[in-house]
Specification:
This protein has 216 residues and is α/β, with parallel strands linked by helices. Helices cover 45% and strands 17% of the residues. The chain has helices at residues 14-25, 39-46, 65-78, 89-92, 97-113, 129-141, 158-171, 185-191, 204-212, and strands at residues 2-6, 31-34, 51-56, 82-86, 117-121, 146-148, 175-178, 198-201. The chain has an 8-stranded parallel barrel, surrounded by 6 helices. Helix 8 links the parallel strand 7 and strand 8 (198-201).
Length: 216
Amino acid sequence: MLIEYAFYDISYSDEEIKNLFKQVKDYQPNMVTVFPYNVKLAKNIFEDTTKIACVIDYPFGMSDSKNRIGQIEQAKKFGADCVNVVAQPFVLCNRKYDKFREDIRSIVESATQLNLEVRYVLEYRVFTYYLLYKISQILKTEGINIIYPATGYGLDDINDNLVASALINKKIAINIICNGNIWNQTQVLSLNKANLFGLQVNSLNGLRLLHENQLK
């Protein structure tokens, strides 16, 4: 199982981030996701031990494709290995599926030229389950192999996140990295039964709990 870490805290100084990342490095996550302005710092700390992803158009996915591609190009300049692109809710909630496909294709084309992996970030708390199925099917058809069910913006109980992921996988065979909040050992133990492709946590405590319970 892939274990990833996401850092979305805007209140940390550079020195605080460095100290945090050095602790995160001890747990050897497969990937660390950060904002564009933290990519260089993360690359310096993790070097070649961990891939660095840059979240694009976070948290609401409100930019047009041109601006999103600009962010992707910037992420590459900073040294990112992967881009996690937030799906555009204003397009999807209006059922503009062709426009969504155009966004995916333009982003994949740009990222491929830059040798960047592309993943998409959904938000199950604002989409109906039918829409989640439709989004996931389109993403898979367009060559996106990994998605996240939520943005990580705000509290998100891991159990709700798991349910959303399971419902998607009932109809669409796509790799999902669950990313709800983990606070205690009971939650971690329940994950052992979930047969997950991947898990992303956004706290040092979450990484510690996974390590202590040998969740791999």
